[in-house]
């Protein structure tokens, strides 16, 4: 890649995101800012338009750096990842992968770093317009909530390239939509629409294209208004349902429920409820 340069601040389809402020050092493949009425939402826009936001290693390195910075920012309570109206991300960078050997992939742990997205403790919303294919679909599924524009398309077309998903596609997709649909998508490479993805449980809500980003930011602001400490516990507990058995998951939930009683925010939240006022959480 050439020298890094500043990317214009992300724009919603209706224009600039109101109240946005740049965060951190400049990026080549991303635009990063804080937005929302209280600057409590970290907004990451994939910005590699000439390649439909294909996920090259440089982009993924920058994404990890951006997520790390937003994770550490005490002002940020939730994160939104989005792309363009045409593509959230059309997949991994095929040109970058084309000449790789098994030995190179295995010895370097190729794609292992992508898991960073799923390890962030703050909630992440994927705001998906256009194509979310292959690695792009996998990236969206690593997020905690997926909002889709009505023209979005989801798919795992790796079979058409003579390979299979390598960043959790067969695993997360199957857990999200069930074996039959996941098997059909993976084995045929066929795409599903936003409406089909909503019906299958892959996305939580579908919006008109021009309203998608604002809706995702609004949801993120609502999440960020809660205790960041307890929100992280809630995210961990839901993930336990996704990743473990029912018995293990309920044990995790109970342990984390008890843990909230050691926090100031649990006491404040319950006191505020009894006193019929808004809670003033301190994330402690």
UniProtKB/TrEMBL annotation:
- What Gene3D superfamilies does UniProt report for this protein, alphabetically? 2-enoyl-CoA Hydratase, Chain A, domain 1, Lyase 2-enoyl-coa Hydratase, Chain A, domain 2
- Which InterPro entries does this chain map to? ClpP/crotonase-like_dom_sf, Enoyl-CoA_hyd/isom_CS, Enoyl-CoA_hydra/iso, Enoyl-CoA_hydra_C
Keyword list (alphabetical) reads: Acetylation, Fatty acid metabolism, Isomerase, Lipid metabolism, Lyase, Mitochondrion, Transit peptide
GO CC annotations? mitochondrial matrix
Q: Which family does it belong to?
A: Belongs to the enoyl-CoA hydratase/isomerase family.
Where in the cell is the protein located? Answer: Mitochondrion matrix
Can you say what this protein is called?
Enoyl-CoA hydratase, mitochondrial
Q: Pathway involvement?
A: Lipid metabolism; fatty acid beta-oxidation
Recorded catalytic activity of this chain's protein: 3-hydroxybutanoyl-CoA = (2E)-butenoyl-CoA + H2O; (3E)-hexenoyl-CoA = (2E)-hexenoyl-CoA; a (3S)-3-hydroxyacyl-CoA = a (2E)-enoyl-CoA + H2O; (3S)-3-hydroxybutanoyl-CoA = (2E)-butenoyl-CoA + H2O
**Which stretches of sequence are listed as region Disordered?**
1-23
Judging by the UniProt lineage, the source's domain of life is Eukaryota
Which PANTHER family is this protein grouped with?
ENOYL-COA HYDRATASE, MITOCHONDRIAL (PTHR11941:SF54), ENOYL-COA HYDRATASE-RELATED (PTHR11941)
List the Gene Ontology MF annotations in alphabetical order: delta(3)-delta(2)-enoyl-CoA isomerase activity; enoyl-CoA hydratase activity
Protein EC? 4.2.1.17, 5.3.3.8
PROSITE patterns attached here?
ENOYL_COA_HYDRATASE
| Mitochondrion as UniProt keyword | yes
Q: How does it assemble?
A: Homohexamer; dimer of trimers.
């Amino acid at each position: 890649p050439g020298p890094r340069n500043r990317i214009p601040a992300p724009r919603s389809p209706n224009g600039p995101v109101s109240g946005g402020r740049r965060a951190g050092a400049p990026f080549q493949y991303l635009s990063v800012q804080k937005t929302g009425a209280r600057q409590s939402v970290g907004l990451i826009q994939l910005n590699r338009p000439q390649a439909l936001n294909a996920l090259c290693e440089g982009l993924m390195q920058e994404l990890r750096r951006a997520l790390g910075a937003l994770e550490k920012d005490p002002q940020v309570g939730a994160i939104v990842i989005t792309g363009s109206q045409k593509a959230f991300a059309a997949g991994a960078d095929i040109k970058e992968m084309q000449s790789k050997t098994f030995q190179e992939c295995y010895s370097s742990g190729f794609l292992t770093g992508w898991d960073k997205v799923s390890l962030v403790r703050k909630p992440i919303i994927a705001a998906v317009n256009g194509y979310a294919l292959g690695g792009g679909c996998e990236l969206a599924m690593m997020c905690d909530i997926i909002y889709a524009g009505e023209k979005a398309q989801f798919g795992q077309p790796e079979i058409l390239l003579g390979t299979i998903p390598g960043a959790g596609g067969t695993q997360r997709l199957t857990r999200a939509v069930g074996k039959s649909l996941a098997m059909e998508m993976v084995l045929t490479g066929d795409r599903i629409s936003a409406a089909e993805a909503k019906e299958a449980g892959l996305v939580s809500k579908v919006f008109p294209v021009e309203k998608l980003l604002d809706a995702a930011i609004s949801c993120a602001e609502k999440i960020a208004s809660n205790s960041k400490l307890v929100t992280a516990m809630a995210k961990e507990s839901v993930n336990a349902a996704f990743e473990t058995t029912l018995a293990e998951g309920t044990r995790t939930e109970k342990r984390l429920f008890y843990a909230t009683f050691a926090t100031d925010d649990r006491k404040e939240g319950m006191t505020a409820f009894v006193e019929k006022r808004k809670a003033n959480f301190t994330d402690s």
